[in-house]
Design a protein that fits this description.
Layout: H1 8-26, H2 35-59, H3 75-97, H4 105-112, H5 115-123, E1 125-129, E2 132-136, H6 138-146
Antiparallel strand pairs: 1-2
Helix pairs in contact: 1-2, 3-5
């Protein structure tokens, strides 16, 4: 899985139409007799733009779609897998270092690869703070850890 970049044209259309809806609902002139129609039209256009973006993302190769995009994505299974991954990482930390979670532990296990890579590619990889994980793809984690002065493993 690579880093997700949205289809530019459709993404920009969603942003533009969302701003139009915002303008029509929050900044419409009170004396405009067509304000309600403009707001309704803007909302319809936003729905159409969102559908076009979803269809464009559907058309991307699977490795260019965001994590969890594929049809049949089982959120509960992924969340369960993520919890099990964290528990396994913590257990290995305890076994190797007698500490529940060592600083930079996610980075250390990522560098080991092997079973960690298999699990990380299946459910994502924890990055950031132990108290508030940000889940990224395995490849995104590699990029974070490869960056100079990376704080991505600041567990």
């Amino acid at each position: 899985m690579s880093v997700y970049y949205p289809p530019v044209e459709q993404h920009e259309t969603v942003i533009t139409t969302a701003l139009r809806v915002n303008q029509g609902t929050h900044y419409a002139r009170a004396d405009n007799p067509h304000a309600d129609a403009e707001a309704e039209y803007g909302q319809e256009q936003l729905a159409l733009a969102a559908r076009a973006l979803a269809e464009a993302v559907d058309a991307l190769p699977a490795d260019r779609q965001p994590i969890g995009w594929e049809k049949g994505y089982d959120t509960e299974r992924v969340e369960r897998g993520r919890q099990q991954l964290l528990e396994a990482m913590s257990a290995v930390s305890e076994e190797r270092t007698c500490a529940g979670w060592c600083a930079d532990w996610a980075r250390t296990l990522h560098a080991e690869g092997g079973i960690w890579e298999t699990l990380g590619r299946a459910v994502g990889w924890p990055s950031g703070n132990y108290e508030q994980w940000v889940w990224v793809s395995w490849d995104e984690a590699a990029a974070i850890y490869a960056a100079p002065h990376s704080a991505g493993g600041g567990e």
